[in-house]
Structures are given as structure tokens and as C-alpha cells.
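One such given next:

>
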Amino acid sequence: MGGIARSTAPVASAVGTVGVWLFGAAFDADPAGVASRVERLGYGALWVGGGNTKPSAFARIEAALAGSTTLVLATGIASIWAWEPAELARQARSIALGHPGRFLLGLGVSHAPLVEHLGLSYERPYSAMERFLADLAAATADERGPQVPLALAALGDKMLALSGRESVGAHPYFVPVEHTRHAREVLGAGPLLAPELAVVAETDPSAARAVARGYMERYLALPNYAGNLLRLGYLDEDLADGGSDRLVDAIVAWGSPSDIATRVREHLDAGADHVCIQPLAPGGSVDYEALEALAPLLVAAR
């Protein structure tokens, strides 16, 4: 039977140890070209960020899969508030049928300001996710063919536990190594743990932190991320003015390729199965040169 997969082993082996996370805007102009480039470098997966709120997002993922041969494409994430479960299931299964074993559906509850921008009310997000998962399972209960692996964006303990029970695992975003360690404790052995890690290939501390703060500013204003950091022991003053040096250095890996590779290894040692790196450049662009430089250090473990 088809439907939504909860078995983790095929997904964990398919995505490899290190992948790449890109915002939709960086991916949309040439999905096939971007996917081919990431695959050529040896990365195991390409996570497409943003809410993935429209069918056109899945058309671009389809194009990326068609332009590559082994790369796994993952949504990081698709917002549950933007979709009817049956329609999302239809979109996901269409991709899974065309490219078996190469698509991972990442789901998330997003954030209040973003959901309100859609004209919806952000209420009881955990319960909303539970309902969505039940409806998604019901919509695919009678389907045949390849299953669609599903992962959940998760920060807090309840959502982490849900991701381990009801999907192949968790995709935390904007997290330091200590969150990865805690997430593995909550998940236990087995479920996939795939944190995002922003990276800046710059050895000058002031320049690197300036790029990092440009990236972090919007996230520190979102209650879900801010609350997660406070639970981990960071202080209100750490979250102010783009983040303290302590917080910036914990969230964003910067320095030489070797320095960044060390941080990736710290997440893996803390319990991550897969780390998806987001290469930041000044002005919010994608640093493809960093991906090139990091590949020899990061993809050999695949």
C-alpha cells in the first residue's frame, strides 16, 4: 500500500550525511540547474525552504528531480495552513510516483505572522498538526505504489515526539548544537534528525557576524524560534539587536571550510543523522563557492 511512510532507514540512507538548504527564491529561477549543481558536488539532499504554499512549488521540485539523477528533494517546509490534506497528498504522491525514493515531504506549522498573512488564524498549532496528519493519512489510506516519506519541522518536545511517532523524523531549523543533542534524547534512536545549519565562509569575525545577523534578524522576531532559544538557556539580551556574539556563533557556523566542517561534525556527534547547510553570502544571496569549498570535507562520509 502507498501513503505516508514512517520507516526511517530508506530515507536516512538516501539523504546521506550532509545536504543543502536553500530558500525558494534562490532555487526558483533554475530548479534543474541548481539541483544538478548540488548533486554534482556530492550532497545527498536539497531542501527547498519557505512555506511551499502553492502547486507551483511542487512543479519546481519536479523540475529539479528531472534535472538530477540521485539527489533527494525535500520541502523545508510545506505549511499545513496553506493546504487541504488531500490536495497536498495528491501533489506529493505525484512526485513520489515519478521519482521513487527521491522526495521527502517536510511539513510544519510555520509561524503566526506568516499564517496571518495568509488570512488565517494561528491557533493551537500542535493540535492543528495532529489533525492534519490524521487527515493526510486518511487521504492516502487506499493508495497503492511508493510511499511518501514525511518529516516534521520540530523545536519543542511535543512536536519532536510527534515527529518521531507519526513521521520519519524531525527537521529543526535555526538551532544550535545543544538543541540537536536534546532533540535526539527526545526522539530516541531510530527517527531521522535533520537540522538546518546556516554557514558563512568568512574568517573575519566582524564580517562573518554581520552576514549572520542579517540572516538571523527575521528569525529572532518570530516567537517559535525565540522561545526555543530561551528554553535552551539563552537570555533576552542574547536575542536583542540581531543576536549576541554568543548566540550568533552558536546558530551560524563561520570561518574556514575546516571550521565549518567541524561544526557540522558537532551536530552529527550530538545525534543528527543529516545536516543541511544553508550557505549565506552578503545581501542574502547563496554562496555557491562555499558549497564547492566545503564539499570535499563534508560529502566524503556519504
Notes: The CA atoms of residues 106 and 151 lie 5 Å apart. The first helix runs from residue 9 to 15.
